[in-house]
């Protein structure tokens, strides 16, 4: 594969195109400064304004959220797995029917595997613009977002209506629901009562891995962070590995499924049969299936990289306690 072909599979951090109207809380005070990015796959945006950088199916989606300080993402859930790692800043994640069942603070490089079946939200609690990267299971990311009822009600008060077709309509732009399309129904009390409310103590041991712990573990060989036998044991349709300078190798390898390289720290030189490219933190590179490649740091200093590869497993394990 030529360098030109591969360049089309690299999304540079500086080239990311945000959408500020991606979701139902786009007008809700406290959430109206969000920027959402769909990097690989169709994502779950409810807006036609969302730009998709790479539409090639991978078996999972890659997205990102950028938010200024004190901006939050409202309580929601997905039908498939949702995994975050913090690229920039300090973030508070919270969950439960009202967002008060539990919470955790994540720093740069930390990763969080959030089970389905639980409403979750997050906010930038740092002092600068922050960015979190997201991996969603499945090619269609489960068919959309499920919002806590109060999020839909709050949004309607600020002019945004979500149709049962999964699309947003903005009364501030004189938009109305099309004929035959009803508003997205709120979850019933019976449905809400079935949702678990795990505490912080329930969630922390098996769903969060800290950056510096992974750096230590990946000193000699890559560490499997998320997988059937990973630090975070799960089979959401993809695996996540963590690589550092000490565990990187120039020996080429390939996968039967597409894979994605996402540098966390340092510059990385990716070499494949046919060319090479250098990635920086925030860049995302899609590697085709069966293409032999390697990735090693290209400069001195701290170097770490997340590696995501599809597995073909069903996506989206629910909370098991």
TrEMBL record:
Residues 69-132 form the Cupin type-2 domain. Keywords: Isomerase, Metal-binding. The keyword Isomerase applies. It comes from the Bacteria. Signal peptide: none annotated. InterPro entries: Cupin_2, GPI/OXD, RmlC-like_jellyroll, RmlC_Cupin_sf. Gene3D superfamilies: Jelly Rolls. This is Mannose-6-phosphate isomerase-like protein (Cupin superfamily). The lineage of its organism: Bacteria, Pseudomonadati, Pseudomonadota, Alphaproteobacteria, Rhodobacterales.
């Amino acid at each position: 594969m030529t360098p030109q072909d591969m360049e089309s599979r690299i999304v540079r951090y500086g080239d990311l195109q945000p959408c500020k109207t991606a979701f139902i809380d786009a007008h809700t005070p406290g959430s109206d400064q969000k920027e959402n990015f769909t990097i690989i796959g169709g994502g779950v945006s409810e807006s036609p304004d969302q730009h998709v950088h790479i539409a090639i199916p991978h078996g999972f989606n890659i997205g990102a959220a950028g938010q200024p300080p004190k901006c939050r993402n409202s309580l929601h859930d997905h039908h498939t797995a949702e995994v975050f790692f913090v690229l920039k800043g300090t973030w508070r994640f919270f969950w439960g029917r009202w967002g008060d069942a539990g919470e955790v603070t994540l720093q740069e490089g930390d990763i969080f595997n959030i089970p389905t079946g639980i409403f979750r939200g997050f906010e930038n609690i740092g002092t600068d613009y922050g960015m979190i990267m997201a991996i969603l299971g499945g090619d269609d990311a489960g068919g959309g977002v499920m919002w806590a009822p109060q999020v839909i009600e709050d949004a309607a008060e600020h002019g945004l209506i979500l149709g049962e077709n999964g699309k947003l309509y903005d009364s501030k732009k004189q938009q109305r629901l099309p004929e035959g399309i009803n508003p997205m129904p709120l979850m019933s009390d019976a449905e809400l009562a079935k949702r678990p409310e795990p505490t912080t103590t329930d969630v922390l041991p098996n769903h969060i891995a800290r950056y510096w712990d992974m750096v230590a573990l990946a000193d000699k060989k890559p560490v499997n962070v998320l997988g059937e036998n990973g630090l975070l044991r799960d089979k959401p349709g993809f695996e996540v590995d963590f690589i550092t300078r000490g565990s990187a190798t120039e020996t080429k390898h390939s996968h039967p499924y597409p894979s994605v390289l996402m540098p966390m720290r340092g510059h990385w030189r990716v070499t494949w049969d046919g060319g090479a490219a250098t990635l920086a933190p925030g860049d995302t590179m899609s590697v085709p299936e069966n293409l032999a490649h390697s990735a090693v740091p290209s400069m001195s200093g701290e170097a770490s990289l997340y590696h995501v590869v599809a597995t073909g497993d069903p996506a989206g394990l629910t909370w098991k306690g």
